[in-house]
Amino acid sequence: MGLVAQATSQAAFEPVNDGTGSALSGYDKVSSAALAIVPGPDGTVTFLRQTNGPYGGHWLLPGGRIEPGESVVETARRETLEESGCEVGQLTLVRVYEMRGSWAKGGYHIIMFAFLSDRVAVVPEGFRGDNVGAIVQVAPQELRPHPTVMRILNDAGVASYPEEEIVAGLARDGIAMLSLSTGSPVAV
Fold it and tell me: On the CB side of 150, how many CA atoms lie within 13 Å of its CA?
């Protein structure tokens, strides 16, 4: 099997400026993470507003860093439960994403495994997630999540955000996002 790589920002993997005048061509470390797209009732998706991290304050999908000894699937399940209170069913890998950018604490470089759950879940009433300011289950078209989430939801076939909006949002935020899927030759 091959790998298809699609850059989804115009600054795709060029050095990122950290705001201090020096370009970042690499980072202290690469973080591996996993997330889950969790269907809710009546065609909704589970979104949360994280309070921390490079995308803090934006609507995101439940997910987070892989802990030592943990598989990517275990991470997606754990993070979803901790952040939304939802238990996921069978998880299908949508794609793997490489995201680089900078924020107030410096540069970041994340390898994100994105999964889609086959089970509809309901956020438990009164649930308060770890590092989460709010949790909603709404139809994707009713919300404007972070542009990285727009890309992931489009790739999973659960939303259809305009490509121009995604590309403009990534460029505005200085994010280089590479989308990797299996089963096809590498696009050069």
Answer: 21
Contact 18, 114 (CB under 8 A): no
CB 126 within 8 A of CB 74: no
State the CB neighbour count (10 A cutoff) for residue 85: 20
Query: 136 - beta bridge partners?
Result: 47
Q: State CA 13 to chain mean position distance.
A: 17
Could you read off the pLDDT of 48-73 as tens digits, one per residue? Answer: 998 988 898 999 999 999 999 999 99
Q: How far is CA 59 from the centre of its chain?
A: 10
Task: Provide CATH code, domain 3-121+136-182.
Answer: 3.90.79.10
Q: Residue ranges per domain, the chain?
A: 3-121+136-182
Q: Give per-residue burial for 115-131: e unless 16+ CB within 10 Å, then b.
A: bbbeebbebeeeeebee
pTM (2 d.p.) = 0.84
Please say whether the beta carbons of 116 and 127 come within 8 A.
Answer: no
